[in-house]
Design goal:
CATH architecture: Up-down Bundle
Number of strands: 2
Shape: globular
Oligomer: single chain
CATH superfamily: MFS general substrate transporter like domains
Structural class: mainly alpha
Radius of gyration: 20 Å
Helix content: over 70%
Distance between the termini: 47 Å
Length: 408
């Protein structure tokens, strides 16, 4: 069933929220497929006779999958519709979840994780484009922040839930459960997702795609916004990928304790999104982003202590938790501004935004992994601080281009 919306929604209602809920349920499934499997990664690499240093690669390959199809999906959904493309993406993710259960080597496991990661392509390039087109600006930011809170339940409870599942059964059941969650999302999207695509009539040719993407990437303000978003969240993604190594392998925590120690970081992220949902509409967006930059920078400033005491992993969690509050405030607001910084079709813009962000995430995780191998927790912190500095610099350029000197 397809609904067609012509006017952006400015007032939230139960019916209006059913589409965002169905979408965020799929987003929840893609996230929790990462987070629930993390406690099992030491077991999986041992099962496939692989060195534990390769554990973060499962996350970085998943994120590369999240960048692999966005270049096509945005323009494709501009032409044939957001809804059929989104539904196809959910089905592909379900197939990948079932397929990974039968992996016979670590290479096939990583390939399955890559295919699972393509599900994130559909969320960013198609799903969130439809959200932004369905709702007015302030309402869209509020909805996005609320969705983020639901999605962030995955990293909040995922590691602990995965650890508990491992107490009773094998790791394969984690992906079976995730596939079931995605199937519920598929039904909800089929029933409640509106069609917001402009239905561009021009054929989908590589030459036209190149022209469209070059028009987006020549927009320096958009590129600055995309870089800022990517590097703002990169330390958090690097933490998710390396936490099993830092907490279980290095610090010797059990899988259950590992899950508990993840809670403060993602509780901070959820708090940031709650603050955003409360203040949006009451202040200019650039002031909200500036507000979020305060805890963002404070947390990473505190993390400098790890350079002197690299074994103080508890302090690393404290600093990341504070920075996460800022990340929660900044991201949804800046995503909206970046998406509308270009006049190109929103499917193309959203795809370009997602590609840049996912490449930053994947490269950042690999760099953080290498830095941690060389210098331990101090090396990890230095990569996070460098990412934060790049994010702040790009954000200043983005806001200055959007709002002028007033935003500085």
């Amino acid at each position: 069933m397809t609904q067609i919306r012509t006017q952006p929604i400015s007032q939230l209602s139960f019916i209006a929220l059913l589409f965002p809920f169905a979408l965020v349920l799929f987003e929840f499934a893609t996230y929790i497929s990462n987070d629930m499997i993390l406690p099992a990664m030491p077991t999986i690499v041992h099962l496939f006779n692989v060195d534990p240093s390769h554990i973060p690669s499962a996350m970085s390959l998943c994120l590369l999958g999240g960048a692999s199809l966005q270049w096509l999906l945005g323009p494709l959904s501009d032409r044939i519709g957001r809804k059929p493309v989104m539904l196809a993406g959910v089905l592909l993710f379900i197939v990948a979840c079932i397929g990974i259960v039968f992996a016979k080597s670590y290479s096939w496991f990583l390939f399955g994780r890559f295919v699972q990661g393509t599900g994130m392509c559909f969320i960013g390039a198609v799903g969130y484009a439809a959200i932004q087109e369905s709702f007015a600006e302030a309402t869209a930011i509020r909805v996005t922040a609320l969705m983020a809170n639901v999605a962030l339940i995955a990293p909040l409870i995922g590691p602990l839930a995965g650890a508990m599942i491992l107490q009773f059964t094998d790791w394969e059941w984690i992906f079976i459960i995730v596939a079931g969650i995605a199937m519920v999302s598929f039904v909800g999207l089929w029933r409640f997702m509106p069609e917001t695509s402009p239905k561009i009539t021009s054929p989908l040719r590589l030459s036209s795609l190149r022209t469209d993407y070059m028009a987006v990437l020549r927009n320096r303000r958009f590129v600055a916004g995309a870089i800022s978003i990517g590097f703002t969240s990169m330390p958090l993604l690097a933490w998710i990928a390396l936490a099993p190594v830092i907490l279980m392998q290095d610090a010797g925590l059990s899988t259950i304790d590992y899950g508990y120690w993840q809670i403060p970081v993602f509780a901070g992220l959820i708090l940031g999104n709650i603050i955003l949902a409360k203040v949006v509409g009451s202040f200019p967006i650039y002031r909200i982003i500036t507000l979020g930059s305060i805890p963002f920078m404070l947390g990473f400033a505190l993390s400098l202590y790890l350079i002197r005491a690299p074994d103080a992993w508890q302090w690393l969690i404290v600093s990341l938790s504070i920075s996460a509050i800022g990340i929660g405030i900044i991201n949804a607001a800046q995503f909206r501004l970046a998406l509308f910084a270009s006049d190109q079709s929103k499917g193309t813009v959203s795809a370009a935004l997602g590609i840049i962000i996912m490449i930053i995430f994947s490269a950042g995780i690999e760099i953080a992994k290498i830095s941690h191998e060389i210098a331990g927790n101090a090396g990890f912190v230095l990569v996070c601080i460098a990412a934060a500095a790049i994010a702040i610099s790009a954000r200043r350029r983005f806001l200055r281009g959007q709002f002028g000197e007033e935003a500085q």
